[in-house]
Amino acid sequence: MNVEFIEALEEIEKEKGVSKEVIFDALESALISSYKKNFGSSQNVEVEIDKVNGTVSVYAKKNVVDEVEDDLLEINIEEAKEIDDRYEIGDIVNVEITPKDFGRIAAQTAKQVVIQRIKDAERDVIFDEFINRENEIITGMVQRISKNNVYVDLGKTEGVLPPTEQIEGEVYNQGDRIKLFILEVKKTTKGPQIILSRSHPGLVKRLFELEVPEIHGGVVDIYAISREAGSRTKIAVSSKDPNVDPVGACVGFKGSRVKAIVDELNGEKIDIIIWSKNVEKFIANSLSPSKVIKVEANEKDKSALVVVPDYQLSLAIGKEGQNARLAAKLTNWKIDIKSESQYSGEL
Q1: Which residues, at least 6 apart from 196, have a Cβ–Cβ distance to it below 8 Å?
Q2: How many domains is the chain partitioned into structurally?
Q3: Can you give the pLDDT at residue 2?
Q4: Is there a smaller number of Cβ atoms within 10 Å at the N or the C end of the chain?
Q5: CATH number of residue 326's parent domain
């Protein structure tokens, strides 16, 4: 190694953010391993790199003893005093043992260490960037599909959309640009692993924040979301400003805002509901588009009996119970739905 190598390390420090000291530490450890591998593993050695001119020196660390039993690990007191007469028995002496062709081995090792450290640093930069973006939305391009996992190009790195986080029935083709929810960022030996989702309710929340300035600005709040991905979502909203209609803000002029979200989710139905402090009113709203005659709420066990017109019973329950199920998830209450005639018959 030489002066040019030291200058190259300084450039790497500036461009890649990899500390020169970190590389030197890693390099010294790697050179000890290289020396032991090539010149004998039983010695206790130390490697020093001159940080000005790049010269590499190898030293054997030897215990000062009265009588040498292992000359690889020990040095006689008389020999030690020839080096420096201050040495005493029990001290450790560094004896230079740099092999003639060690410079070549050092150069090869240095190259490998630097490449690895740059890779590690780049992985750390990507991890630090994405760990702060968990639960955010990102746009990516479908790169490839393998074993039902969809691999998405996110620019600096690749994310994975596992089968459990895909929307049922949604088809992904190479080159498609899609919006995704960053579900989790993990640190692995192969670098950061970014788990993406298309089915998480958080994706709908983030899409509304992107499309509705009143939500982004904090005038309209999203209270709760319940979702059956690919089929239907219910979202409860409220407004801090009495002059702003939260449902109107989310729907947009001629339905433009909600349409953009429905299009991104390939036709998933979205019910926008007004949240209310009044539990009975909120439960009634949650069963939209069905009309509700009355709600009897039991605060103790968080259950409610909802009465709907006879002709609206199937609409309130929904196909395969979906509307009632989503309303229960949205409100976090157990909901029992009865028609008006069923309710009257029980009185």
Answers
A1: 138, 140, 152, 159, 160, 161, 165, 180, 181, 182, 183
A2: 4
A3: 63
A4: C
A5: 3.30.300.20
